[in-house]
Amino acid sequence: MKKRKEIRPQNESTPENAECEDTLKIRPTLAEIAIAKSLLKGATQAAACRAAGYAPTTSYYHSTEIINRPGVQIALAEGLKRAGGTKEKIARTMVAGMDATKRAHDAQL
């Protein structure tokens, strides 16, 4: 009998990629990318999960768990980077909001 050749997953350590063993690349799925896009457009967590194809009950009860997945976080970071969002810009916006003396909906009245 012939000995079967061992098939390894692409990310498993081999002599060619032994030095990058610690930094395995996580690639977001299409659903995770769809969630990130919806969140970047301003959707709620549950609405973003529903837009990606999750059932309404799953979206409602498990959206936080889904959003915290590494693939979603990577897709969000890439989307922010493409949009020109940096930690400094986000921090400035948050501080400006905390220092605000007038609420936006008061100005509309």
Would you kindly provide a written description of the structure presented here, covering whatever features stand out?
This protein is mainly alpha-helical. It has a domain at 27-99. The chain is built from six helices and no strands. The chain has helices at 30-40, 45-51, 56-67, 70-82, 87-99, 104-108. Helix 1 (30-40) crosses helix 2, helix 1 (30-40) packs across helix 4 and helix 2 packs across helix 3 (56-67). The longest helix has 13 residues, at 70-82. It is globular. Residues 7-15 and 17-23 have low confidence and may be disordered.
Instruction: Give the total of beta strands.
Output: 0
Question: In terms of quaternary structure, what is this?
Answer: single chain
> Which class of secondary structure composition applies to the elements?
mainly alpha
Q: What's the overall geometry?
A: globular
Radius of gyration: 21 Å
Q: Please work out how many helical segments DSSP would assign.
A: 6
Instruction: Point out poorly predicted stretches.
Output: 7-15, 17-23
Strand content: under 5%
How is the biggest beta sheet arranged?
none
SSE order in H/E notation?
A: HHHHHH
Mean pLDDT: 79
End-to-end separation: 83 Å
Helix proportion: 55-70%
